[in-house]
Design a protein that fits this description.
Blueprint (H helix, E strand, L loop, with lengths): L1 H14 L8 H18 L6 H17 L20 H31 L4 E4 L9 H4 L12 E3 H11 L1 H8 L7 H9 L14 H13 L10 H9 L1
Antiparallel strand pairs: 1-2
Helix pairs in contact: 1-4, 2-9, 3-9, 4-8
Length: 234
């Protein structure tokens, strides 16, 4: 299992395409949205005057489309993601990652089912309740077998999801062998690359963020801090 994970990691690295460098307007568009989100999340840490200044500036810029990468396309329908080369490249990269993960797992699973189905391979040295029987004895249809016995199929799944710390130790945190990392990257393939999903209109996202800033009620965390400090000392 460890060797398979290491090979899957390097196969994923070889199949991964080099990310394209973003242009300056695209970077400004994404960072400007992130700036508004950070302002909304950390508004309590700045004074009311500083918050009001930043809020008015961001709302005005969002509504006027100052930060848009392509202001000429403002108000037009969002392009089809299937015709976007960047979106197609992202989908192709996700398919490569799925192939690098599913092919070895399918082969190992078929091999275990063909040669080791119904076998028990080890006995745990500590007692367990009956609730663990279905998890530890998958493929073994017996009622009287002790819960501490582990079937080959269950041992495979335990290794499949329990070797993440080993892969992190061998390959580092940013490895492609971890099952959890693979699942998270498939659920959100654009994380870290873009603030906007394929086919999403940036202008509508900016307008939505402007509304969020408008309805935000500011409460300064240091308001009346002198009185609170003196009252706690007295």
């Amino acid at each position: 299992m460890i060797l398979t994970g290491v090979l899957r990691h390097y196969a994923t690295v070889l199949l991964a395409s080099t990310p394209k460098k973003l242009e300056l307007p695209a970077i400004r568009e994404q960072r400007s949205l992130l700036r508004g989100i950070n302002l909304r999340n950390n508004a309590h840490s700045i004074s009311p005057s500083a918050f009001a200044t930043r809020k008015n500036y961001m709302i005005t810029a969002y509504k006027e489309g100052t930060f848009l990468k392509d202001p000429g396309n403002r108000g037009k329908a969002a392009p089809n993601p299937m015709t976007d080369p960047a979106a197609m490249e992202g989908m192709m990269g996700m398919m490569k990652g799925n192939m690098a993960m599913m092919v070895p797992q399918t082969l190992i699973m078929s091999w275990i089912n063909a040669f080791f189905a119904g076998f028990v391979i080890m006995k745990l040295p500590f007692p367990l309740t009956l609730r663990f029987k279905s998890m530890l004895q998958s493929g073994v249809m017996t009622r009287d077998l002790d819960v501490r016995w582990v079937s080959s199929l269950s041992w495979y799944f335990l290794n499949l999801f329990g070797l993440q710390s080993v892969f992190i130790f061998i390959l580092g945190n940013e490895n492609a062998a971890s099952q959890m990392a693979q699942q998270m990257s498939q659920m959100n393939p654009g994380a870290g690359a873009s603030m906007f999903q394929p086919g999403q209109d940036p202008d509508k996202v900016f307008q939505s963020e402007a509304e969020n800033l408008e309805v935000l009620e500011h409460e300064y965390i240091l308001k009346g801090v002198e009185e609170r400090l003196l009252s706690s000392i007295a």
